[in-house]
């Protein structure tokens, strides 16, 4: 409900004024439930631009939140987020290799490059973690290490080969951007996020069992290795898909699961849906704000999430100290 | 029939940590695994739990090989309490105990009335009914360990494996905890450091050194000054209490006589 309302209101915001009633009419028209005369310009803005964008924002928020919730529980690390696996930096490297150097001859496109880069980085992280002791902290360490490496690689390519225009484009993409989202993006991400969400909810009980570590989880009948690989691969695929469409949007995956836990307790059967819902609503609003605040210049949405996310996160940390 | 280990060996990182060990606890009995650090107590418990597979030998549950069973199936019969399992999660005691129902529940779907009853029974058994709504972090060390036992009991196991459950507990809580475990209607295998606790609460002790069983049987028969000197390298006096039939061990300063020192 809150999500539907957020999307509807967010769609009305922007340089061109569109009222909620107009939005409703336009939606009804497109769903073939009505035939109400509306202005063509408004129709185009809402249906072709703002609505897909708001829906992609919602899918990104939900997906990133899910990934964060899963990783924080699985790795037993409150600082884990989708980017701890090195996935986003790998995606950036893939994107700049294609976008700036033109590797692959345009057959892949920047999104394809980002997707492949993301999975390659994830593979590197898993290999690194395997070569060390294999525990959960080594996954985090390997992720941090490969994040640094791929960021350096990205900078190298940008520094060495990109002209000013390309640099600006890459920067925008690295910070996350929901410019120019289309309906096929909406369909792709909704399917991916919905599928991921179903698997996450089905894994809620297993994730609860990880609260006291892997030994206890194993004694509770959880197949620890299988569960860990399944969920790590799931989060990697989900993150790669999101990042390849919308760029690296930070802090949603880190902060939203904590907010959901504060509001709804620790049990994953509640945390997971709550995180997805909060993430979706949060992103819709941040994206709307980032479109409006500096209009007509759009702010990269990742900047907005970090500007809101970091203070919230600091607040959570301080609260945590208060408890201990 | 129960949980049996038949001549199991396990090589871990090049070293043989369990070497041809056979454990066959009588149903309902309490068995102590004794031995110095690194003697293979914890490794043996991992094999019994089925989280690790022996290189040779078999662990069986009711005659079925553990390595062929699903983890959920095992977890419905065998519960484990490790030493010092901690969490950062802000979770209440009842939800910790609820984790014990994990192997009994379907993938989706809520708790049944039977789940709630099992949780109630487990909490009552360890005397934590009053504290069920308290947060984990407000519990004392002894209460946390009892909560873990309640969590294991909520699994409704027939076998309970405990790895040094009394570590970090004061003496009163050590005694209470082992008295609780010895009374439980399950077969219990407990890795212990304290010989007196083993002598007080266990029906059988199994002494390990370098992964091998060097002695096994009732505490009064096994825990002799000669064996303690041989396995632990310390001097000890063993007193027999003729009323209870139990023994108690008093340690003495200084190295044991050369005669008893292990080669």
TrEMBL record, chain B:
Keywords in alphabetical order: ATP-binding, Nucleotide-binding, Transport
Domain ABC transporter: 3-235
UniProt-listed PROSITE patterns: ABC_TRANSPORTER_2
Listed GO MF terms: ATP binding; ATP hydrolysis activity
Recorded superkingdom: Bacteria
Matches recorded under Pfam families: ABC_tran
Protein name from the UniProt record: Histidinol phosphatase
Organism annotation: Nocardioides gansuensis
């Amino acid at each position: 409900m809150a999500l539907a309302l957020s999307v509807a209101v967010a769609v009305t915001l922007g340089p061109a004024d569109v009222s909620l009633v107009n939005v409703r009419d336009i939606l009804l028209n497109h769903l073939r439930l009505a035939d109400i005369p509306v202005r063509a310009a408004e129709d185009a803005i809402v249906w072709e631009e703002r609505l897909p964008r708001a829906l992609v924002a919602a899918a990104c928020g939900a997906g990133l939140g899910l990934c964060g919730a899963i990783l924080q529980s699985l790795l037993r690390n409150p600082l884990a987020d989708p980017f701890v696996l090195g996935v986003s930096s790998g995606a950036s490297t893939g994107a700049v290799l294609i976008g700036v150097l033109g590797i692959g001859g345009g057959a892949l496109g920047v999104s394809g490059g980002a997707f492949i880069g993301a999975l390659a980085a994830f593979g590197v992280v898993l290999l690194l973690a395997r070569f060390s002791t294999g525990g959960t902290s080594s996954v985090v360490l390997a992720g941090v290490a490969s994040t640094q490496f791929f960021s350096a690689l990205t900078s190298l390519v940008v520094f060495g080969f990109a002209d000013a225009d390309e640099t600006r484009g890459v920067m925008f993409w690295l910070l996350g951007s929901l410019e120019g989202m289309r309906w096929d993006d909406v369909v792709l991400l909704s399917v991916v996020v919905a599928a991921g969400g179903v698997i996450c909810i089905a894994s809620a009980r297993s994730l609860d069992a990880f609260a006291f570590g892997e030994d206890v989880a194993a004694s509770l009948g959880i197949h620890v290795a299988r569960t860990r690989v399944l969920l790590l691969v799931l989060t990697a695929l989900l993150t790669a898909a999101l990042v390849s469409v919308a760029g690296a949007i930070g802090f949603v995956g880190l902060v939203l699961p904590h907010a959901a836990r504060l509001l709804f307790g620790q049990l994953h059967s509640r945390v997971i849906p709550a995180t997805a819902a909060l993430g979706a609503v949060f992103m819709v609003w941040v994206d709307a704000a980032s479109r409006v605040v500096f209009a007509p210049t759009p702010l990269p949405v990742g900047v907005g999430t970090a500007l809101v996310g970091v203070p919230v996160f600091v607040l959570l940390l301080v609260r945590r100290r208060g408890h201990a | 029939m129960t949980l049996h280990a038949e001549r199991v060996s396990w090589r871990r990182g090049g070293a043989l940590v369990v070497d041809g060990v056979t454990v066959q606890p009588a149903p309902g009995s309490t068995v102590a695994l004794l031995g110095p650090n690194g003697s293979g107590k914890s490794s043996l418990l991992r094999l019994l739990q089925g989280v690790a597979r022996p290189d040779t030998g078999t662990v069986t549950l009711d005659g079925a090989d553990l390595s062929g069973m699903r983890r959920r199936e095992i977890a419905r019969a065998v519960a484990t309490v490790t030493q010092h399992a901690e969490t950062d999660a802000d979770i209440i005691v009842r939800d910790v105990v609820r984790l014990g129902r994990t192997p009994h529940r379907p993938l989706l779907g809520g708790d049944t009335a039977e789940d709630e009853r099992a949780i109630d029974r487990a909490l009552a058994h360890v005397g934590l009914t009053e504290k069920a709504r308290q947060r984990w972090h407000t519990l004392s060390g002894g209460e946390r360990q009892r909560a873990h036992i309640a969590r294991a009991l909520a699994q409704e196991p027939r076998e309970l494996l405990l790895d040094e459950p009394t570590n970090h507990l004061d003496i009163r809580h050590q005694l209470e905890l082992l008295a609780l475990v010895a009374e439980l209607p399950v077969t219990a295998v407990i890795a212990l450091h304290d010989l007196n606790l083993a002598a007080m609460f266990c029906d059988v002790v199994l002494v390990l050194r370098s992964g091998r069983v060097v002695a096994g049987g009732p505490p009064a028969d096994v825990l002799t000054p000669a064996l303690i000197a041989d396995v632990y390298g310390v001097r000890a006096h063993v007193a027999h209490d003729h009323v209870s039939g139990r023994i108690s061990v008093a340690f003495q300063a200084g190295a044991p006589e050369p005669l008893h020192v292990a080669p």
